[in-house]
């Protein structure tokens, strides 16, 4: 339903842009309208903050009231998403041993500081929206690899099917989709994105190898930099845990895998 609602809203905005521009500028061409859609404000914010008010203005005074409620709901949606992100980061700090009464204020402060440059500089906002918007593909692929490494059968049984009550159960074909179909789709999308970005210049005339606002090079450098920092921090934490005498997480994974295999074989035998 969420994807369907987003798709319908996108179609609504595109239709609004075409109908509004053709009414205001009778001689405008489709190519000119497409160019406006592709470069409508910083980080494409104009599609929401320009064309939604244009659409609702056609409804008279009722449209003004709807606009107020629309942007109020949009603010609540942003805050609700921010709350889940703060809780996730705060819980991670708790796992590292920090007390909760310090985790949440620290998380809010870090979130504010990281978001401040985007609020002060729209070019920085455009760059971060471009870089980390496409990074969601990497994030999804990493989740798929995590499930594959954990074991799709164990994930399907332990995390989904045997965890919930009176819920929809994942069929066996889900394992094949996660192991084969979804990774191929993710890699294909990444290759298509890279080829399309390299072959074409962006709206500012920047080449793909330049450190511009929306270029392939600046995206890859930031991705590699963040992944390198995350890998170093994980390696340091793993080394620290080993120095303290904590058990090896890989050994725990191996033992849980063996115990799951034994339990599965015993259930099959008993059946």
Kindly report how far apart the N and C termini lie: 40 Å
Overall pLDDT metric: 81
Helix-strand topology string: HHHHHHHHHHH
- Return the structural class: mainly alpha
Radius of gyration over all CA atoms, rounded:
24 Å
Gist of the model:
By secondary structure, the protein is mainly α.
How would you explain this protein's 3D organization?
- The longest helix has 35 residues.
- Helix 7 packs antiparallel against helix 9 and helix 7 crosses helix 10.
- This protein is an all-alpha fold and 271 residues long.
- About 4% of the residues have low confidence.
- The relative contact order is 0.04.
Features:
79% helix, globular, 0% strand, 271 residues
């Amino acid at each position: 339903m969420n994807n369907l609602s987003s798709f319908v809203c996108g179609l609504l905005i595109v239709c609004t842009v075409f109908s509004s521009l053709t009414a205001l500028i009778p001689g405008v061409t489709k190519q000119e309208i497409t160019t406006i859609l592709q470069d409508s404000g910083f980080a494409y914010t104009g599609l929401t903050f320009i064309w939604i008010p244009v659409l609702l203005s056609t409804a008279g005074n009722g449209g003004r009231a709807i606009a107020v409620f629309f942007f109020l709901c949009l603010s609540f949606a942003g805050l609700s998403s921010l709350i889940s992100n703060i809780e996730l980061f705060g819980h991670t700090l708790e796992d590292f041993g920090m007390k909760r009464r310090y985790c949440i204020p620290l998380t809010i402060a870090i979130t504010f500081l990281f978001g401040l440059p985007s609020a002060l500089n729209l070019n920085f906002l455009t760059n971060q929206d471009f870089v980390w918007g496409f990074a969601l593909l990497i994030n999804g692929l990493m989740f798929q690899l995590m499930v594959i490494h954990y074991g799709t059968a164990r994930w399907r049984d332990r995390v989904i099917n045997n965890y919930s009550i009176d819920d929809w159960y994942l069929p066996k074909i889900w394992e094949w989709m996660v192991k084969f179909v979804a990774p191929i789709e993710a890699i294909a999308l990444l290759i298509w994105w890279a080829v399309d970005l390299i072959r074409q210049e962006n709206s500012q005339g920047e080449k793909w190898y330049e450190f511009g606002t929306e270029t392939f090079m600046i995206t890859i450098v930031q991705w590699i930099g963040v992944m390198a920092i995350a890998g170093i921090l994980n390696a340091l934490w793993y080394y620290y845990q080993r120095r303290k005498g904590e058990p090896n997480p890989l050994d725990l994974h191996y033992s849980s895998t063996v115990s799951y295999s034994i339990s599965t074989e015993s259930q099959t035998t008993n059946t």
